[in-house]
Amino acid sequence: MTSGHKQPVSVLVVIHTTALDVLLLERSAHPGFWQSVTGSREGSETLVDTARREVLEETGIDSTNGHLIDWQLSNNFEIFAEWRHRYAPGVTHNVEHVFSLQLANRPSIVTAPDEHRDWQWLPWREAAERCFSWSNRDAILMLPEMYPAGT
Question: What is the C-alpha to C-alpha distance for residues 42 and 79, in angstroms, rounded to an integer?
Answer without folding.
Answer: 17
